[in-house]
Amino acid sequence: MPEFDTIDDLPADSRVLVRLDLNSPIEDGSPQDNRRFERHAETVRELAAAGHRVVLMAHQGRPGRDDFTSLAGHAAILADHVGRDVAFVADTYGDEALEAIDALDAGEVLLLENTRMCEDELPEESPEEKAETEFVRTLAPRFDAYVNDAYSAAHRKHASLVGFPLALPAYAGRVMETEYEANTAIATREFEGPVTMVVGGTKATDVIGVMDALDDRVDRFLLGGVAGELFLRAAGHPVGRDVGEMDLFDEQWERNRELIESVLDERGDAIHLASDLAYEGPDGERAEVAVDDIDQKETGFLDVGAATVDDYRPLIRESDGVFVKGALGVFEDERFADGTVGVLEAIAETDCFSVVGGGDTSRAIEMYGLSGDDFSHVSIAGGAYIRALTGEPLPAVEVLEAAAERQ
Question: Strand, helix or coil at 197?
Answer without folding.
Answer: strand
